[in-house]
């Protein structure tokens, strides 16, 4: 296989390049999503439907801490992509070194209080009644592996920024496959229940970390670090922070959303409604993997070409990514509208959950065909280093529209209003994102056409 260079991002045809970047990203996301999906199926069938709700309670806490790594990774990788495009190798190295240091410092400092206040955190996120004990078991063990997960999420974005999508794909596949194997051994074989599921997840994070460590120490990576690059530099920290804050804000809002949804749904329907939300949430992670793959593939191409001043290539990248992502989102929409009952039976045989989940799934995915505009629009501003519009667009759906809606609509429609909030928020945020993106293309990209 020919060695891939970051310079290819500025020379190869956009359609071919986007596919080359997006397919490995999509496969990686698919395997990771399958891991979450199958993990939930294992837990639901081998432990019970309440265990699905327990994991759903824990995810926003652990993922928020791990999202620090993703945020530092995305923010720093935007800098790295543009630095490589502008032939600024030293800045790329300094950025990567600072990413590692920041990720370790921040995640470890949050894991410690997270373990100390476990009995307060779990009920806050909806871990009440029968959900509390299994959630506590899962949470305590998984939190030990969160620093490894954060480093993996950070490192994966850097690998993609170097123009090495296949290695980024491997980094996502290895822990996913490992987790499924460990799930079977620890839950089914040794009958460890929730503890087995938790240790399988933690072990998978360590596997991913070992692979990425090998990658950056080997000849595969262009970024060869020495000790001097790990020293924190204020200008780089500020730039990483301003861009990474976009991703962190999104994850923070997601965590708040889980907190609110788990508590609101528990009040309406107890453990059954929380379990239904957990199943729908897994499908949100899994079903949209090709659309997320397009978005991940789009980021380094847009960032590199913007840094190199190739604005026409950036415009073409936006148009191509929107076309591909919209087509894939429409296919996902059709499948989920036709087969929600069949999908639900994979997770549980609980009759109450089987009755509630299909309708909820149809509402949640009702506006799926238009989400490409949201994802690509917000990703563009992040890729080119425009932190404020990227932040605003990222917060638009969950923060500005969805959270208010889950308080307003249930006043009129009860629990149905909670599920209706999803498509309404999608439509409103898509309109806002389209306006921002159209204006940017017209004023910035088309203004530089030769």
SSE pattern, N- to C-terminal: HHHHHHHHHHHHHHHHH
**Total strand count, please?**
0
Note the total helix count: 17
Whole-number total of structural domains: 1
**Sheet with the most strands?**
none
Over all CA atoms, what is the radius of gyration?
21 Å
Mean pLDDT: 87
**Structural class by helix and strand composition:** mainly alpha
The share of residues in extended strands comes to: under 5%
Give your account of this protein's structure.
It is built from 17 helices and no strands. The chain has one domain (about 10-450). With about 450 residues, the chain is an all-alpha fold. The mean pLDDT is about 85. Helix 1 (about 15-45) packs parallel to helix 7.
Helix-strand layout with pairing:
Layout: H1 14-46, H2 49-85, H3 89-116, H4 118-124, H5 132-144, H6 146-161, H7 165-189, H8 193-217, H9 234-287, H10 289-307, H11 311-338, H12 340-347, H13 351-364, H14 371-383, H15 387-408, H16 410-413, H17 415-445
Helix pairs in contact: 1-2, 1-7, 1-9, 1-10, 2-3, 2-5, 2-6, 2-9, 2-10, 3-6, 4-5, 5-8, 6-7, 6-8, 7-8, 9-13, 9-15, 10-11, 10-14, 11-14, 12-13, 13-17, 14-15, 14-17, 15-17
Question: Could you give a short description of this structure?
Answer:
Helix content is 84%, strand content 0%. By secondary structure, it is mostly helical. It has one domain.
């Amino acid at each position: 296989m020919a060695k891939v260079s970051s310079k290819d991002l500025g020379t190869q045809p956009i359609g071919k390049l986007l596919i080359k970047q997006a397919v490995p990203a999509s496969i990686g996301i698919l395997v990771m999503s399958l891991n979450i999906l199958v993990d939930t199926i294992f837990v639901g069938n081998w432990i019970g439907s309440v265990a699905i709700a327990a994991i759903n309670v824990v995810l926003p806490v652990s993922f928020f801490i791990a999202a620090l790594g993703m945020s530092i990774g995305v923010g720093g990788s935007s800098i790295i992509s543009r630095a490589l495009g502008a032939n600024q190798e030293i800045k790329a190295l300094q950025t990567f070194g600072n990413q590692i240091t920041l990720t370790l410092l921040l995640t470890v400092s949050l894991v410690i209080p997270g373990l100390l206040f476990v009995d307060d955190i779990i009920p806050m996120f909806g871990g009440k009644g029968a959900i509390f004990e299994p959630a506590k078991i899962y949470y305590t063990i998984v939190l030990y592996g969160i620093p490894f997960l954060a480093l993996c999420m950070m490192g994966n974005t850097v690998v993609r920024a170097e123009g090495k999508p296949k290695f980024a794909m491997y980094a996502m596949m290895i822990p996913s496959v490992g987790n499924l194997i460990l799930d079977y051994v620890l839950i089914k074989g040794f009958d460890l229940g929730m503890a087995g599921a938790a240790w399988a997840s933690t072990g998978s994070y360590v596997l991913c970390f070992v692979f990425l460590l090998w990658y950056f120490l080997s000849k595969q990576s262009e970024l060869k670090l020495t000790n001097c690059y790990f020293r924190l530099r204020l200008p780089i920290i500020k730039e990483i922070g301003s861009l990474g804050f976009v991703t962190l804000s999104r994850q923070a809002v997601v965590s708040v959303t889980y907190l609110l949804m788990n508590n609101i749904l528990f009040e309406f329907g107890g453990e059954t409604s929380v379990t239904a939300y957990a199943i729908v949430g897994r499908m949100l992670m899994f079903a949209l993997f090709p659309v997320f793959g397009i978005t991940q593939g789009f980021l380094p191409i847009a960032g590199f070409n913007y840094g190199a001043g190739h604005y026409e290539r950036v415009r073409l990248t936006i148009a191509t990514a929107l076309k591909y992502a919209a087509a894939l989102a429409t296919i996902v929409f059709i499948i989920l509208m036709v087969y929600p009952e069949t999908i639900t039976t994979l997770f549980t045989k609980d009759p109450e959950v089987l009755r509630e989940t299909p309708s909820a799934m149809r509402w949640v995915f009702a506006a799926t065909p238009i989400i490409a505009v949201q994802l690509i629009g917000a990703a563009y501003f992040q890729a080119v280093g425009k932190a404020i519009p990227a932040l605003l667009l990222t917060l638009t759906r969950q923060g500005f529209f969805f959270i208010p809606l889950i308080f307003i609509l249930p006043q009129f429609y009860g629990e149905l209003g909670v599920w209706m909030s999803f498509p309404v928020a999608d439509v409103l945020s898509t309109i806002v994102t389209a306006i921002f993106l159209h204006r940017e293309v017209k004023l910035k990209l088309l203004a530089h056409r030769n």
